[in-house]
Amino acid sequence: MKILVINGPNINMLGIREPNIYGSQSYCELLRLLNLWAQELDIELEHFQSNHEGTIVDKIQSAYGHFDGIVINPAAYTHTSIAMLDALKAVALPAVEVHISDVSAREAFRQISYAGQACIRTIMGQGLDGYHQALIYLKSYLERQ
Ligand code: DQA
What ligand 1 atom has the least distance to the C-alpha of 98? Predict the structure, then answer.
């Protein structure tokens, strides 16, 4: 089972950016955890991070035919990017949306998720463990297919 984990803009700044919201663990630590969880769950995992919308669209498109599912934290593009929504719909791979913070309790402009409309589930407000929960959910979803 091959899962692609995509992180959007500023997720590479974890540990530095607004630690009161996103915690003190770094992006490097997130990658270490992702690899650990993938091993435990017997998942082949690739991770990708970009600050550029089009680059993320390209990556979603490239998943077609190569991955079984996607875990995505589109970060700020969550709330703006119809292009990412369309790319997720185009490849039609099961995708789980993750947000480290509880976006539902934040600013009004964070209340819309475009990408989330193409996802089978959204996990928010669980810190980095949200990615773990997303992998578990996606794995069991794929096994049921
Ligand atoms: C985020 C929430 C977004 O609103 C924000 O723009 C981010 C991170 C999260 O993981 O909580 O960059 O996706």
Answer: 10
> Is the minimum distance from the CB of 7 to ligand 1 under 6 angstroms?
no
Output the CA angle 104-107-112, nearest 5 degrees.
Answer: 60
* pLDDT at position 28: 98
pLDDT in tens, 74-119: 999 999 999 999 999 999 999 999 999 999 999 999 999 999 999 9
From CA 27, how far away is CA 33, in angstroms rounded? Answer: 10
Q: In angstroms, what is the span from residue 5 Cα to ligand 1's centroid?
A: 15
- Tens-digit pLDDT profile for residues 43-53: 999 999 999 99
Whether 73 lines ligand 1, by a CB cut-off of 6 Å, is yes
Instruction: Compute CA 142 distance to the chain's CA centroid, rounded to the nearest angstrom.
Output: 17
Question: What does pTM read for this prediction?
Answer: 0.98
What amino acid positions are annotated as catalytic residues?
22, 99
Q: Does any ligand 1 atom lie closer than 6 A to the CB of residue 51? A: no
Residue keyed to tokens 């992006």: 27
